[in-house]
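>> received
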Amino acid sequence: MARILLTEDDESVRAFVKRALELDGHEIIEAEDGGIALEILTARQGNFDLLLSDIMMPVLDGIGLALAVARDFPNLAILLMTGFADQRERAFGLDALVSDVVSKPFTLAEIRTAVARALPGASAEEKIA
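>> returned
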């Protein structure tokens, strides 16, 4: 399956998402903020299939992280998540860079579906569903 870098500062959300995605066989590497995520990406030379990141985080937020990833690792798919409507609007300015923005709270099924759609190689049906 896919190798996913999960970047989320809330430990309980991070644990929930990690467990949800592991159900689909994905390998999940965790980071608690965007700065750590960039360090991991650089150390692993961007060797991930997907960056799944919260928008609101300390140090480096998800928008800044998405911009850096798009610049340095242009083939890496990006999926953002947020619980704040104003942050969701900010992210929609990045339509060319970001697959989607998932609104919190979400269910296990919703995050699994969003990730399946965002992964490279997702079928047209998965992207539309």
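>> The chain has six helices and five strands.
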